[in-house]
Amino acid sequence: MNLFVLLKQVxxxxxxxxxxxxxxxxxxxxxNVINPLxxxxxxxxxxxxxxxxxxxVTVVSMGPPPAxxxxxxxxxxxxxxxxLLCHRGFAGSDTLATARALxxxxxxxxxxxxxxxxxxxxxxxxxxxxxxxxxxMISAMLDIAVxxxxxxxxxxxxxVVVERVVEEGFERVRLPLxxxxxxxxxxxxxxxxxxxxxxxxxxxxxxxxxxxxLGLTRDTVGLSGSPTRVVQVFRPKFARDTxxxxxxxxGAAVDSLVDLLIEKEVI
Amino acid sequence: xxxxxxxxxGEQRGGSVHSxxxxxxxxxxxxxxxxxxxxxxVVIGHELEAFGREIVxxxxxxxxxxxxxxxxxxxxxxYSAELAALIEQIRPEIVLAAATTAGRTLMPHVAxxxxxxxxxxxxGLDIDDKERLLLxxxxxxxxxxxxxxxTPSARxxxxxxxxxxxxxxxxxxxxxGEIVVRAAACDDAQCAGECLLGFVRDTSQDVSVQDAExxxxxxxxxxxxxxxxxxxxxxxxxxxxVGATRDVVDLGWIGYPHQIGLSGKTVSPRLYVAIGLSGTIxxxxxxxxxxxIVAINKDKDAQIFRVADYGIVGDLFEVVPELIDKIxxxxxxxxxxxx
Lengths: 267, 339
Known about the structure:
Chain A is α/β, with parallel strands linked by helices. Helices cover 27% and strands 30% of the residues of chain A. Chain B contains nine helices and 18 strands.
């Protein structure tokens, strides 16, 4: 089975700062890591590889040169091959432009259209943008089946059965292959790099792909290929007349709160 | 043909139209009125006819019910084909859906098919008066800011909207509107073999934080799982649901279904009590539409106070026990008074 895992490198803490003038992330303070849910996707692919002979795990990412570290880490964890979409032409891509580039990259590294032995995996969302849009967009562009919020995957002859976590319970869904699944945290516990993996990672090349390699023209990639524009970044103002009281030994602040709760008829 | 009008994508679950549809209609109505255009609503599913009337009463001018046995369950490619076909037929300038597991799957699929932009998880929507463009506001990249996003030229302008971030309009029983019921338009040969095998209802996932009238939520200021019980005790006393920040859920003090914020649930209760949480943008995105917000925090500059109606700056380990005692006393006094 050919397993394609999409990885995103994200800032290492959940509380990233933003440059309010440019609307871009301030990345310097924090170590970048593999997006946590993408690690779950990688682990799911590695588990399938272990259970199905002759499987191969290919990881693909888009990002600046340091993102190759995330791909090396994926190889250390057991992935076979890694490719990085890396070129200033990709900068400023929104979710649609990102999906377009990644969809083409998957077919490019596969060397063909996807077929019945192919499965694409990624995290349900990334911790930085939190949109969760790129996965379903890629599935539409490749015209393959999709399941999101997946916490279990069973591979059958020519299809997979997945379990999805939805608002009111769990769905079991049959998906013909090829397919794309986006996974949630419940699916597994990501493993650790092995010594052999670390050695392999050192030796492994991470080929870079450019828009030209993928046949992307200027108006289909990066900011100019993105239909959305961030027009304003701001600190929200909330219109409430806040009554702020200091805690006091006499207990007046809490008494007023109790009065408020009585007035609101909650006690 | 020019793109004109607003389309909201309603949602059905288990054969009933879900209330999030009516929240979207309230959003859509405001936008359509600002633009001076019509508001359409589409629901895809099976045996939906009975719901058309209420959708009109809640604000739609025209309702499309795409009703077919093969659409009973959410299969992304099938739903996407139907929605994309309708959009190409009626050409709305704006399409809104709920940021639910279904909406967050369907909308990116459709946006990719139509080659247009999509903004996820909007908490604010407005119209730019000059350009007549949709202003899509969402909490931005992990931090403490909001971003407003436009789709300048691609059409339609598409967005998913956080559930519970708006209130439905009351039913207007006299409201007039058109209801169109039709079968699936698309050949589903390409979706052969794609189907739902089963559905297990699991209410342990659903701690009903979203439907609670009162929510008491705690953050990592509680310092330990043991101390977090204070939040649960106060919630018990007020008949409230327990909420938590992402930090608290990541620390394992309480399960993910209790998480409130951008990557958890959005709530809009009558009363929200925030204890020992600073109020990151992601958390505020999940609760700022609550009717009354009370916050207890030791840091007077904590962002949570900026959205609070009433705040106490102090040591929660003293304030909360005092509050619990005084609420007990007030309840007892009321019981005695009633006798």
